[in-house]
């Protein structure tokens, strides 16, 4: 069970493709097992260790002699290998030999392409990659059967000798023999992998044509000084295609040990001819020595003085170089459902750079179906789900927040000098005098010129209130009270009337006045109050308005109140403003309650009005005013002749404030949204990976202790 919960991948073949592939997968956190038929890593990039009869140890790069790089992506990887000391450039003279004319031609023709070799052997790269952390390499094991376990969604690998090699989430076949009929030719068994069930890989069912090659390893006791080149390609030769001086490669320790090693490669035609005679089965040593003799003879036939080698051995490369490229534009063959990849140079161009296919595996991870992603989606459901849900919640929260932020408007304040002229200033009043009946109250306005605002259109109402505050009657003030406006009262009807000219001058306290005094006293005993509200339009100059009993004839007032100190000007201001309200305005006097408890007096509110313009989103302009206020109370003194009142003294600021409502930019909102969502997404991914790693490490250590 524990092994099933890991992401395991089997890589078949430790050649350059397999090794690069294994290394990349391991770097991505996958546990990789490499199966290699040979005794060491390398495939065709391998090095052969040979011991002569007299006990000398020789090394040959009997496979690929070198590799060159034209692809930029691959070059980056090769540079990193160079930095790790795994590869080195091989700078020796190369050329061609024309067998028909017996002359060397094309000296150094190829000097522009850099040739790289592994250090100290060609196999060093594969060896190093196969021992990367996370890669386990098993040598000397031939995979004999690769089965897809449908019910468990896993691959099962069995070796050629029937050993169970374990079960894996994915398989990378970098050795084409896994699917090739050649496997049968070599081992007498069907190929390990049956690809007829994978339609994506059906292209492989047509056998891959390959070219074979023989390699001849030669060791001379002295350098071949008669050959000016260290790498020779043969033209017009039936047998030989290439000869390389292995000892001239950088980092070959045996180069100093008094001998020179060469490797010759036969032509494909020659190898085919031999294989046609002998079949694909392992060659007998006789047959091999015959090949060796023939190749050496051809080499000697170059006409130059070649001493007899003290060591000579031939090796058959059954599938050295594929003849054609399949698999399209350098793609791996890839069965996504079963997580099976078939990679290698045989998928691409027939050269050593085919290992680029290994690099291409990197992109496989992006398919998100390869083991790591698969693990997240299929196996780590609990931790993954928790992280995902948290991520989604965070995203939703941030989204709502951003949306709210975008939808709310904000205001911009600007100031300038007020250049408006000739407009009036509307004063909205709504206040209650709980201890004064409407009959005695009057509203008066005076501007700076001292002029009473008698001409202005006013709209002030007075409501009679009972002790409990219920409205019992309405009175309308058509005109501001001044001078001898004694009493205009029609308080007993709910209707309002234009004040008729019924009132008379009351110098002599006529019968009207008597009744009025009686009524007021009555009302005061009942605890009647009065609510004053309405709009006053005044000139836009400094001035004041006040609510008082000044409208009463002084004698009448004396009779009613029996002295100024008994005029209870306690009041509640419900609303005092100088124009329409805009969102966010604060009128500082709203809700002000002033109750007198002992002596009476005069209230004075000093008001500074700030002209204000409010522009909303649709650019409608609302002219209005804000104000600030300070207040002052003067208690009445015995010697004072004035009567208590409530004064509002106002002044206008020359500065106008423009408040603009604005909306946040939609693009800005989108940008923030992208940042928020993308950031959360990335963070969640990171968390998920960490969690996966931690859980993996935890489980690993647990199974480890069980095994011990
Ligand atoms: C005056 O203020 C009172 C108390 O807030 C309120 O009920 C009444 O509607 C206001 N009157 C007007 C005309 O705004
Ligand atoms: C003035 O009137 C208010 C409200 O009716 C009352 O609470 C207060 O006691 C009165 N003040 C005096 C001095 O009578």
From TrEMBL:
Skewed-composition ranges (Basic and acidic residues): 483-509
Protein origin, superkingdom: Eukaryota
Protein name: Endoplasmic reticulum-Golgi intermediate compartment protein
Keyword Transmembrane: yes
Sorted UniProt keywords: Membrane, Transmembrane, Transmembrane helix
Endoplasmic reticulum vesicle transporter C-terminal domain sequence ranges: 516-688
Domain Endoplasmic reticulum vesicle transporter N-terminal: from-to ranges: 364-453
């Amino acid at each position: 069970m524990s092994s099933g919960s890991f992401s395991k991948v089997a890589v078949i073949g430790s050649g350059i493709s397999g090794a690069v592939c294994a290394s990349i997968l391991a770097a991505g956190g996958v546990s990789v097992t490499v199966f290699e038929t040979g005794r060491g890593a390398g495939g065709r990039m391998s090095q052969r260790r040979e011991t002569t009869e007299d006990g000398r140890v020789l090394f040959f790069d009997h496979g690929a002699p070198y590799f060159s790089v034209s692809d930029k992506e691959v070059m980056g990887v090769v540079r990193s290998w160079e930095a790790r000391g795994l590869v080195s450039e091989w700078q020796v003279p190369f050329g061609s030999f024309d067998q028909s004319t017996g002359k060397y031609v094309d000296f150094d023709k190829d000097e522009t392409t850099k040739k790289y070799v592994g250090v100290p052997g060609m196999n060093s790269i594969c060896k190093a990659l196969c021992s990367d952390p996370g890669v386990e390499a098993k040598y000397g094991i031939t995979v004999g059967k690769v089965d897809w376990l449908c019910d468990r969604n896993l691959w099962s690998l069995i070796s050629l000798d029937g050993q169970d090699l374990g079960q894996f989430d994915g398989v990378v076949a970098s050795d084409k023999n896994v699917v090739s009929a050649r496997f049968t030719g070599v081992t007498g068994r069907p190929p390990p992998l049956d690809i007829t069930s994978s339609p994506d890989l059906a292209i492989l069912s047509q056998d891959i044509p390959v070219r074979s090659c023989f390699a001849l390893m030669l060791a001379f006791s002295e350098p071949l000084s008669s050959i000016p080149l260290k790498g020779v390609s043969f033209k017009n030769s039936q047998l030989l295609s290439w000869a390389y001086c292995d000892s001239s490669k950088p980092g070959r320790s045996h180069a100093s040990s008094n001998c020179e090693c060469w490797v010759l490669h036969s032509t494909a035609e020659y190898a085919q001819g031999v294989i046609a005679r002998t079949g694909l089965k392992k060659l007998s040593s006789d047959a091999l020595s015959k090949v060796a003799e023939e190749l050496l003879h051809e080499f000697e036939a170059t006409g130059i003085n070649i001493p007899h080698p003290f060591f000579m051995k031939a090796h058959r490369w059954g599938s050295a170089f594929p003849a054609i490229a399949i698999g399209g534009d350098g793609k791996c063959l890839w069965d996504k459902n079963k997580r099976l990849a078939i990679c290698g140079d045989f998928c691409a161009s027939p050269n050593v750079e085919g290992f680029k296919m290994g690099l291409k595996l990197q992109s496989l991870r992006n398919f998100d179906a390869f083991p790591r992603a698969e693990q997240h989606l299929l196996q780590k459901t609990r931790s993954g789900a928790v992280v995902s849900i948290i991520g989604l919640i965070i995203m939703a929260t941030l989204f709502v927040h951003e949306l709210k932020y975008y939808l709310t408007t904000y205001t911009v304040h600007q100031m300038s000098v007020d250049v408006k002229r000739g407009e009036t200033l509307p004063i909205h009043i709504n206040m209650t005098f709980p201890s004064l009946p409407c009959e005695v109250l009057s509203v008066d306005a005076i501007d700076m010129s001292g002029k009473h605002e008698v001409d202005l259109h006013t709209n002030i109402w007075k409501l009679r209130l009972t002790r409990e505050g219920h409205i019992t009657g309405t009175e309308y003030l058509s005109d501001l009270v001044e001078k001898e406006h004694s009493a205009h009262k029609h308080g007993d009807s709910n209707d309002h009337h234009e004040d008729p000219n019924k009132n008379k001058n009351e110098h002599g306290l006529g019968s009207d006045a008597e009744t009025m005094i009686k009524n007021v006293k009555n009302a005061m005993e009942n605890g009647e109050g009065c609510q004053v509200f309405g709009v006053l339009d005044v000139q836009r100059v400094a001035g004041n308005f006040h609510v008082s009993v000044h409208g009463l004839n002084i004698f009448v007032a004396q009779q009613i109140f029996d002295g100024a100190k008994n005029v209870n000007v306690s009041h509640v201001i419900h609303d005092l403003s100088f124009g329409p309200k805009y969102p966010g305005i604060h009128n500082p006097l709203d809700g002000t309650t002033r109750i007198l408890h002992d002596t009476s007096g005069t209230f004075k509110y000093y008001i500074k009005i700030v002209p204000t313009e409010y522009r909303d989103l649709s650019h409608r302009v609302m002219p209005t005013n804000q104000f600030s206020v300070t207040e002052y109370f003067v208690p009445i003194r015995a010697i004072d002749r004035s009567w208590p009142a409530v004064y509002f003294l106002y002044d206008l600021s020359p500065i106008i404030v423009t408040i603009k409502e604005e909306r946040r930019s939609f693009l800005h909102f989108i940008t923030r949204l992208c940042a928020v969502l993308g950031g959360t997404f990335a963070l969640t991914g990171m968390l998920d990976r960490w969690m996966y790693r931690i859980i993996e490490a935890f489980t690993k250590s647990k199974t480890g202790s069980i095994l011990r």
